[in-house]
Specification:
The structure holds two protein chains of two kinds. Chain A is α+β, with helices and mostly antiparallel strands. Chain A is about 20% helix and about 40% strand. Helix content of chain B is about 20%, strand content about 40%. Classes of the chains: A alpha+beta, B alpha+beta. Strand 3 (about 75-80) of chain A pairs parallel with strand 2 of chain B, so a sheet runs across the interface.
């Protein structure tokens, strides 16, 4: 795309004309069905990468299409097409409706509301920024990272932005649009020493435009990545066995994403494949735990105005002072329970069916002083940065990996540790949280589920778990 | 099929003087059926197509070349025009690099592989639905302790790819694939344990539903009653499925691109003994049994057999054209790309260890006491192919007196990839081609740290 300036603040033309939307929905339920829906998407992506001191590649991509689903009883029919002409959409509607051939269900087509186009929520659309300006950021981060220490032997810097326009319309009378702009920046450093190679990673990612770089100092991102790699050169193997763990604010939110977030997604609940089934109203965590999933926080990585089923994003309290208050819902699972979606229906693209997903999931801050929490921990492990995790919702067992961790000895943070996974059981670990500080922060991540990836935010303040198993190699 | 190659060629023919252009065009069709509680939960079916274009420009001062990339999920003429223009514009901004170039035909003939099952399109949607439903019923009824089948899926895909470039590359391939997979939950009181099973093939008739169902049930049921064990050092026997995952991870460290950029623990160790003498590791996409079998690589060169570790000695890496030039060698026909939206990089498609003498029961008997790991978690968060640090969540069974004993869960096993390769005690003879870039086979590794209570 040439760098032609486009004016932010104005909503573009609809992805599909209203008359076409109505005719396609009517065709989708002609042979029966409880509900039909069109999800149209136009996604433009651009990226740039620097590696081995060179700007290796700029890339740009575009994907545009529509997914159509028809729900009949317990069954969903789904088809998608990149052909957004009326004929293309009717063809997809026909394919999706094939599940309805045996009849059953009579969708009442509710009149669609009048359209309110939504302008992109970005001050500076990345497509209006000169490519050379983006590349300056890469080169700068490379220079800063390499200047952090002679042991830094390799640096990889990535920039990416995306603009995703969506339109959702259903026979239930939903007509919603969103225009989501996201920008990210990441640095990976390799440090080399007597003990071999180590890596350090840091990223920033927000649901906003190029104004991200007014708020974020890429030098700091580069220095942080370099510091992590350099620090681990002198790291000793992580311990093994059960130890007290202090998780620093920010990326520690992955703990909640894995320990209970996935288990509170209603698709796992209705299939009885979560350890949290039937436990609403019960104490499932320490009273210090108040957990919220909130898609409305403007600017955060998991933010949107409407979800991929056209429902407004919402703030949902999941655990209140340790008591389970609710699960997260999409349209399909909410319908089974005769309730409303909580605005958590998301999909990777128009080629995917929606399912229940988290947005920005975080632990509400406590009141303690983070330094005091460490000082009152005679021995254990301090995790400054977590990398990622995984959970089995049916058993509650989950892992999460450290990318920057230290020993705590006599209430002080001492030696750096090599990377390791920690393993625990969700409900057990949540009960073992005995201190939460006030130093809250959020961190971006990519959440994978059933083959689909979506951007999410995780957050928490510094906290302590009285005991969790760390998987190092030291006895 | 030649229609795709015609399109790729037509893009390449629009190269300007001095410009290199490569067009990768793909088209596919896939179906997925999920069964739950005796009903079809969803039935999805769709076609998709797209194009990825790389443009290589010579630098004004002759000091190397620059590459730009663009892609789109559409083959409409206007979109294809825009993709070429975008790729060309993107190339202007890259740093000139003497190693950047499109792949040159190297005269290696592509292996004839039969990856397209002509019976594929003859399988009706009803038959696909029936398979998913049957698998679900089979697992539900297999054992009274199975209390839920979270999902039972049938899926298939057909893909056609064409690639052309100004250097004279012309490649055209197509393949079909089908799978069933099932996830079972076994229960006993408040306790739940999970197990999965699957079967893959070139089309529906090749699938073994019974095997997929039995695996899921066995794996879930045998974990009932699992608990933590005390931390300690153990010999670990890895299930073939886990081994396929581990080999895929190790393959990142064998990528010539990672090595030449100093991002692999194998960097600088060519010709050295990096593994136990029984370890011979080969990437051979020309083996038609491999799930990742392919005639052409992601740059249109013929795929070939590459020996990476031979008798414990590190013999080579896999290269695409650019990483090969950077390393002062030639491509091993190992460019991989993730469809039309991705650019080529060096990687493996069909890794396997040369089989040993023993099957799994014989390996367990030989090990005597240890831990059998049936599945691992946190591979992306706990394994680094740069440092070699290895720490994963594990569940499985204790090995006592040479046989599988009580189940164990919520533990980790840890070591470094370097030490694990040197501590291989047995490579199973039970080679099994699994989905992904590697084969599975039983593997015993000594002296790993298990972390539990």
């Amino acid at each position: 795309m040439p760098d032609t300036p486009s004016k932010p603040g104005a909503a573009g033309a609809p992805l599909i004309e209203p008359g076409v939307v109505e005719r396609v929905l009517a065709a989708a339920v002609r042979r029966g069905g409880d509900m039909a829906e069109i999800f149209a998407e136009d996604r433009q992506i651009s990226g740039a990468s620097l590696d081995d001191r060179k700007v290796e590649e700029l890339s740009s991509g575009r994907e545009r299409g529509a997914g159509i689903r028809v729900v009949v009883g317990e069954t969903t029919g789904f088809a998608h097409t990149a052909d957004m002409s009326e004929a293309g959409l009717l063809g997809a509607a026909e394919a999706a409706a094939a599940v309805a051939r045996s009849g059953g269900g009579e969708a009442r087509i509710v009149a669609l509301p009048s359209r309110h186009g939504r302008p992109p929520r970005a001050e500076v659309l990345p497509s209006t920024v000169a490519k050379a300006r983006k590349l300056e950021l890469l080169v700068r981060a490379d220079d800063v990272a390499r200047a952090s220490g002679g042991a830094i032997t390799q640096v990889q810097v990535g920039y990416g932005d995306s603009r995703r326009r969506v339109l959702v319309a259903s026979t239930d009378g939903v007509l919603a649009e969103d225009d989501q702009v996201r920008t990210r920046f990441s640095v990976v450093c390799v440090a080399s020493g007597d003990t071999g190679l180590q890596t350090g990673y840091e990223s920033v990612a927000h649901t906003m435009g190029f104004e991200l770089f007014d708020q974020v100092d890429v030098d700091e991102v580069a220095r942080t990545a370099a510091r992590r790699a350099l620090g681990k050169l002198s790291a000793r193997p992580a311990p093994s066995g059960e130890v007290p763990v202090v998780l620093a604010g920010g990326s520690g939110g992955i703990l909640f994403h894995e320990a209970c977030g996935h288990g509170l997604e209603a698709d796992h609940i209705v299939k009885d494949s979560s350890v949290y089934v039937g436990r609403v109203g019960e104490q499932v965590a320490s009273p210090l735990v108040t957990l919220v999933d909130d898609g409305t926080i403007v600017g955060e990585w998991g933010h949107y105005a409407v979800d991929d089923e056209g429902r407004p994003a919402a703030r949902n309290v999941l655990i209140d002072h340790g008591v389970l208050t609710d699960y997260m819902w999409d349209w399909l699972r909410a319908r089974k329970q005769g309730r409303h979606s909580s605005g958590n229906g998301r999909r990777q693209s128009y080629q995917h069916l929606p399912m229940v997903r988290m947005t920005n999931t975080f632990l509400m801050a406590g009141t303690e002083d983070p330094d005091e929490i460490v000082a009152q921990t005679p021995s254990g492990v301090y995790v400054a940065k977590l990398g990622g995790g995984q959970v089995n919702t049916a058993t509650g067992d989950f892992v999460f990996g450290t990318t920057e961790a230290y020993l705590i000895e006599h209430g002080r943070i001492t030696e750096p540790l090599r990377d390791a996974n920690l393993i625990g059981n969700g409900p057990e670990v949540l009960r073992r949280i005995d201190a939460v500080a006030g130093d809250f922060s959020m961190t971006p991540g990519t959440c994978g589920k059933d083959g689909q990836s979506v951007p999410v935010g995780c957050g928490q303040a510094t906290l302590r778990i009285t005991g969790v198993t760390i998987g190092g190699t030291a006895a | 099929m030649s229609e795709l190659l015609d399109l790729a060629r037509s893009v390449v023919e629009r190269a300007r003087p001095g410009e290199g252009v490569e067009a990768y065009v793909a088209r596919g069709h896939d179906t997925e059926v999920r069964a739950f509680a005796g009903e079809v939960e969803h039935l999805a079916s769709a076609s998709s197509a797209g194009i990825g274009v790389r443009v290589v420009l010579g630098a004004a001062d002759g000091e190397g070349s620059r590459v730009g990339f663009a892609w789109a999920g559409s083959l409409e003429p206007g979109v294809v025009d825009a993709v070429l223009a975008d790729a060309r514009d993107n190339a202007v901004y890259a740093t000139p690099d003497p190693h950047v170039a499109l792949a040159q035909p190297d005269g290696v003939a592509a292996t004839e592989l039969d990856l397209w099952d002509p019976g594929f399109s003859g399988v009706s949607t009803d038959e696909k639905v029936r398979m998913a439903l049957e698998l679900e019923q089979m697992v539900r009824g297999a054992d009274p302790r199975v209390r839920q089948v979270e999902s039972a899926d049938y899926g298939d895909a057909s893909v056609e790819v064409a690639l052309a470039s100004t250097t004279g590359i012309r490649a055209n391939t197509r393949r079909t694939s089908a799978y069933v997979s099932v996830s079972a939950i076994a229960g006993d009181g408040d306790e739940s344990q999970t197990g999965s099973g699957f079967s893959v093939g070139r089309s529906a008739p090749a699938l073994d539903l019974e095997r997929a169902g039995r695996d899921a049930v066995t794996r879930a049921v045998r974990l009932l009653g699992a608990g933590k064990v005390r931390s300690g050092r153990f010999t670990v026997v890895f299930d073939p499925r886990v081994v396929a995952t581990l080999l895929s991870v190790v393959s990142s460290a064998l990528s010539g691109e990672a090595v030449v950029k100093g991002r692999s623990f194998f960097a600088g160790r060519l010709g050295e003994e990096v593994a136990a003498g029984m370890v011979t590791l080969v990437d051979d996409p020309t083996d038609p049994r491999a799930y990742g079998a392919a005639a052409f690589d992601g740059e249109g060169l013929a795929c070939r057999r590459n020996v990476l570790i031979d008798g414990g000695v590190l013999e080579g890496f896999v290269y695409d054209s650019v990483s090969a030039r950077r390393a002062g060698t030639v491509s091993t026909g190992s460019a991989v790309r993730s469809g039309y939206a991705g650019t080529p990089g060096a990687g493996c498609r069909a890794l396997a260890l040369s089989p040993g003498e023993l099957d799994q029961p014989a390996i367990l008997a030989s090990v005597g006491d240890g831990v059998y790991v049936q599945s691992v978690t946190g591979v992306h968060s706990g394994v680094s192919t740069v440092s070699g640090d290895f720490s994963v969540g594990a569940e499985g069974l204790m090995i006592r007196a040479g046989a599988l004993a009580e189940p164990v869960r919520e533990v980790t096993v840890a070591s470094t990839l370097q030490r694990m390769l040197r501590s291989v005690l047995h490579v199973g003879c039970d080679v099994e081609w699994l989905p992904g870039a590697a084969a599975g086979q039983t593997l015993a590794i000594g002296d790993m740290q298990l972390s539990g209570s």
